[in-house]
Amino acid sequence: EATQQEVKAEENKKEPLCRQKQHRKVLDKGKPDDVMPSVKGVQERLPTVPLSGMYNKSGGKVRLTFKLEQDQLWIGTKERTEKLPMGSIKNVVSEPIEGHEDYHMMAFQLGPTEASYYWVYWVPTQYVDAIKDTVLGKWQYF
Hints:
- This is Ubiquitin domain-containing protein UBFD1.
- One of its GO terms (molecular function) is RNA binding.
- The protein has about 140 residues and is α+β, with helices and mostly antiparallel strands.
- It has a single domain (about 15-30, about 45-135), classed as PH-domain like.
- It is built from three helices and seven strands.
- A seven-stranded antiparallel beta sheet has the order 4-3-2-1-7-6-5, with helices on one face.
């Protein structure tokens, strides 16, 4: 029986994230009206303004502000702003959204398990690498 569960877990991993039920309900709402324009095939640095026009897992508006001088990522919603030290974010995962490959869904791992992922949808693809590098602290050589 354990092997059957492992096989199921494997199958779930192969299914693209954007097809999984928990993500479908947000993605099926479609792009937010105020989504930031995306530039496919280009890597850009983080803009100096917050990244806005994205949804969180409950379909609420979310904005990401990178406070580099404080080494913090601020995740802002209408209700509140979570101020997370960059060092507390254990991982960042992202995957293009099917049919809208110029946007990604992205998760910030805030605790030890997958249950602690904070999902953000409709992240413009040109910022994905910059977000990962900024949060995970990749050294930049100029």
